[in-house]
Amino acid sequence: MDLAYLWFFIVGVLFVGYFVLDGFDFGVGMSLPFLGKNDVSRRQVINTIGPVWDLNETWLIVAGACLFAAFPEWYATLFSGFYLALLLILLALILRGVSFEYRHRTEDPAARRRYDIMIVIGSVVPALLWGVAVGNIVQGVPIDENKEFTGSLLTLLNPYGLWVGLTTLFLFFLHGVYFVGLKTDGQVHHDAQALAKKLAIPTVVLAAGCVVWTVVIAAGREAPLLWAVIACGVIAAVALLLSVYLNWIDRDGKAFAAGAVTIVFAVLTLWLALFPYVMPSTTDPAYSLTIENASSSDYTLTIMTWAAVIFLPLVLLYQGWTYWVFRKRVSRSSIERAAAEVH
User: Fold this and answer.
1) Nearest to 266 by CA among 294, 301, 229
2) At what angle do helices 109-139 and 252-274 cross, to 10 degrees?
């Protein structure tokens, strides 16, 4: 296989990993107003992702670096055209990170409430805007003959882009609530299961509409991997319904796993619908960025391939080890005991 095509799929896998892992971080942050009835329960919710949230974000850094190195033309057009949307995502991620780091350093209830609000905002904004960005990449955006984006932020706020954004928002929300249910005990655990049941219907409706709409776009573009787009969409839908059922019968671990599978195949549905383009042009199909005309040289891609073969397994082993170390539930009693020791 041509290395450019190989790296298209590698970058896709990296973004899949990012959306699955940071996706439940976003969901946990969004669940804070619903599950954090008091400071102890809020700390219990936040502590579920305390040891791993920054590690999950590194997938975005790796994915962005690989996109820059493997597809510089794509990177240049994407980051210049989507500059404001990506800047809002970056600011939201910074806001969330600062809140995680400083919330536990203050005993002032008002300051903690402000940090909690920042966590929610820093979770909602990326969850929505990542979907809007990916939806626009799949649907196509105005690009001229110089490979420059000629639209604005309002151009991105179109029906399909917003639908995909709302879909990722609810998928990540549900995914995060599953994670809270898996990692906590007591009232927070039961409240998370109940909240997941309430989120099920709107999430299923949005996801179903997103899959159908994406298939229609891919079919209209005569996507060569249309069969794979349909297959991934069906698998995502089945996995989502299965996660809802598993949550209903109190199978927390399996519900979370099914939710992760849902996001994997939902992202693959969008990614495969894009192939062989990387940014279709709605101005003129001839101006579209494709895998071939947006990629780096074979020499660059060869070096990157060897680096990926050597280092990616090490990263996966380290991340797996981290999750194993912090695999236990975050109990309410441990939070109360830690608070008592401080005072």
Assistant:
1) 229
2) 40
**Reduced 3-state DSSP string for the chain:** CCHHHHHHHHHHHHHHHHHHHHHHHHHHHHHHHHHCCCHHHHHHHHHCCCCCHHHHHHHHHHHHHHHHHHCHHHHHHHHHHCHHHHHHHHHHHHHHHHHHHHHHHCCCHHHHHHHHHHHHHHHHHHHHHHHHHHHHHHHCECECCCCCECCCHHHHCCHHHHHHHHHHHHHHHHHHHHHHHHHECHHHHHHHHHHHHHHHHHHHHHHHHHHHHHHHHHHHCCCCCHHHHHHHHHHHHHHHHHHHHHHHCCCHHHHHHHHHHHHHHHHHHHHHHHCCEEECECCCHHHCEECCCCCCCHHHHHHHHHHHHHHHHHHHHHHHHHHHHCCCCECHHHHHHHHHHHC
* CA distances to 67, 176, 226, 246 from 312, in Å: 15, 25, 29, 32
* d(C-alpha 246, C-alpha 260), whole Å: 13
Paired tokens of 186: 């007591």
Residue ranges of the chain with per-residue pLDDT less than 50: none
Among all chains, which residue has been given the structure tokens 């229609």?
A: 216
Burial class for 308, CB neighbours closer than 10 Å (0-12, 13-18, 19+): middle
Token pair listed for 19 = 């959306």
Six-digit token pair at 242? 């299965």
Q: Give pTM, 2 decimals.
A: 0.93
pLDDT digits (tens, 9 = 90+) for 77-100: 998 889 999 999 999 999 999 998
